[in-house]
Design a protein that fits this description.
The protein is mostly helical. The chain contains 17 helices and six strands. It has a two-stranded antiparallel ribbon. Strands 3-4 form a two-stranded antiparallel sheet. A hairpin with a 2-residue loop joins strand 1 and strand 2 (179-181).
Length: 493
């Protein structure tokens, strides 16, 4: 072999190699999306939970419920502020990390991203009105300020989910001569897959928020705080989580029902179908996919075909039907999918047991083992949600736009600066995580100590050198406002 042939082979290897920006882009998006999606769940579900608690407080003249609603509003503001940072980072990352995608399909995806930005700003406005409206607005009008928060949170999340659904089932454009033409931006927002994907994620958001909030009060009850404040703080989000957990298997089934036609390789990876069976495909639990064969797995006859295809005879398409270069990372997709399903059914069984025993006059909130499980239920719900997101994204590979554009085609050709961005993001998200935990723990500690309005812990206690000694926190906000206003007048004199 002469030097010319060697150079030609080397050129082919370089041409076939992935672009330098692919790996840092994948790492960056995994970090950013995996972190931000947790906050997005609270943005979707927390306002509705606050609304129900606030409504209960008004209708029943219940100061405990009103106190919980007020405190939850402040906690949601902390999460919203941190989510605003991570969401802004994501906006820049789409163009920075995936120039091939946005350069080609920017006109297709622009409308949902624009609506998501508008929804975010409206949510921020009404969150501010709600926070500062206590004692300054008629009760029912103040309560109604929560509804725009809930609606805009849903709209913003739907827009993002519509983009992701489009990446899994692209529509609203044609390709002629290598150019994207006949663009229909509304088709991205209103396609059947987007509605189903959002329904699945919407329920997941209520599971994450519901179980996470309930976990806080379960942990408090484990420490002996078994007052009405903790029981009510547990029950309302737990009720939301219950409804979501019971409905989620149906939403997931409808979402995945046409997966055999839409993304058969993803379905084969989920089900560990290494080859197309002669009859119904068994459900495969565990195992490892090695050299085109599944080993050391537990099989349950028929269940895979029943769950995926509603059939006792039709087989799930096997991985043997696809070229190796079109297969997703099979083991990763399979275990992510099974983690989502397994944890989801565990949480479903837990809520079903709780309500059954409650019907039988058994109070599980007095059972320490149940409270211990509920104290970690939020982490379990987050894990299931993250696993489902990973299964969706990894199962779509090697396509960033399924069947149209491969992921390496969308990545940048440079890497040095992207690794620096990734390192900075790790520090940023790590710092925000520590800050969020510290702030929320500080708020909870001061609430337990009896503080009502949580003034800044380092703020001045005197309004003026000759003014009154301090402005006290008040449980009755209307009286507090009047008293503090009088103190301000005295200080001005």
């Amino acid at each position: 072999m002469d030097a010319t042939q060697l150079l030609a082979q080397a050129s082919d290897v370089v041409a076939a190699a992935d672009p330098a920006g692919l790996m840092p882009a994948r790492q960056q998006m995994a970090l950013s999306l995996g972190w931000h999606i947790i906050l997005a769940c609270f943005g979707v579900a927390f306002p509705a939970i606050i609304f129900v608690m606030h409504l209960r407080g008004i209708r029943k003249n219940d100061p405990v419920a009103l106190n919980l609603a007020k405190r939850w509003g402040k906690a949601s503001a902390v999460l919203f502020a941190i989510g605003a940072v991570s969401g802004t980072v994501l906006s820049f990352e789409m163009g920075l990390l995936w120039p091939g995608l946005m350069g080609t399909f920017g006109d297709v995806l622009g409308l949902p991203f624009a609506f998501e930005g508008l929804a975010f700003f409206l949510e921020a406005i009404f969150l501010g009105i709600y926070l500062y409206g206590w004692g300054k607005m008629p009760p029912r009008l103040h309560l109604l300020m929560v509804l725009p928060m809930a609606i805009t949170g849903v709209i913003g999340t739907y827009c993002v989910l519509a983009v992701n659904a489009w990446m899994n089932a692209p529509t609203g454009f044609d390709i002629a001569g290598g150019e994207v033409v006949n663009i229909e931006p509304w088709a991205v927002l209103f396609n059947q897959h987007a509605f189903l994907a959002f329904a699945h994620m919407w329920l997941a958001a209520y599971m994450v928020a519901g179980f996470s909030i309930a976990a806080v009060y379960a942990a408090g009850m484990l420490k002996g705080r078994r007052d009405r404040y903790h029981r009510l703080g547990f029950m309302v989000p737990f009720a939301f989580a219950t409804i979501a957990a019971l409905a989620q298997p149906f939403a997931g089934h409808f979402l995945g029902h046409d997966l055999a036609e839409r993304q058969p390789a993803k379905l084969a990876a989920f089900e560990f179908a290494d080859e197309t069976a002669d009859g119904a495909t068994p459900l495969t639990i565990g195992g490892v996919y090695i050299d085109g064969e599944v080993k050391w797995a537990i099989e349950i006859p028929y269940l895979s075909s029943v769950a995926a295809l509603n059939s006792f005879t039709e087989p799930v398409p096997g991985l043997d039907q696809f070229p190796e270069e079109d297969e997703p990372p099979v083991n990763f997709a399979h275990y992510s999918f099974q983690a989502m399903v397994g944890i989801g059914f565990l949480l479903l069984a837990t809520v079903a047991l709780y309500w059954f025993l409650r019907w039988r006059k058994v109070d599980l909130l007095r059972n320490r083992w149940f409270l211990r499980f509920m104290a970690v239920s939020g982490l379990l719900a987050v894990t299931a949600m993250e696993a489902g997101w990973i299964a969706t994204e990894v199962g779509r590979q090697p396509w960033i736009v399924y069947g149209v554009m491969r992921t390496p085609e969308a990545a940048a050709d440079h890497a040095g600066g992207l690794w620096l961005v990734y390192g900075g993001s790790v520090l940023l998200y790590g710092g925000m995580t520590v800050a969020a935990i510290a702030i929320l723990r500080s708020m909870a500690r001061r609430w337990r100590e009896g503080a009502a309005d949580l003034p800044s812990p380092y703020g001045p206690k005197l309004l003026a050198a000759d003014g009154p000694a301090e402005i006290r926190d008040c449980a009755d906000e209307k009286d507090c406002t009047a008293e503090n206003a009088g103190a301000e007048r005295e200080a001005a004199k």
